[in-house]
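User: What would this chain look like folded?
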Amino acid sequence: MIKDVVKELVVLKLVGRENMLKAVKMYYTDNMSPSDIARIVGLAKTSVRSKITYINYIAGFRTVYLLPTIIPVIIDKLKDIKPIVKCNGIKCMCTICNKAYSQGKIVHHIVNKHRRYIEYLVEEIMYELYSLLGVRNG
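Assistant: Here's the prediction, encoded as structure tokens.
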């Protein structure tokens, strides 16, 4: 579902994974291979490939053809949002609740504890997508 793709990209933005967002956008807009993208962005090619595979999976086979159209729109809307995680070394700090977490647990914290904020951002972006696609919501 498209809403799940939006949520995944919003979480990447909130956690501060700008390089992964850039990689996803490059894959869908520039038709580059994950290996080339990884070399340009500075990520492991398996990370890029697995994120692309996961996004295709959560989009579903009925809507995966829309991804090249909507991914750039979603990522452009995310430019106005600031990450809520600050990392230095192996510790990450959530700027909303001022708690420190390891890098492995910060995504879990953001998704579970700040769910309403994520839902708000997702709904805001979905409204823009509905108008882009010409779909009425409600």
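The longest strand covers residues 85-88. If you want, I can go into more detail on any region.
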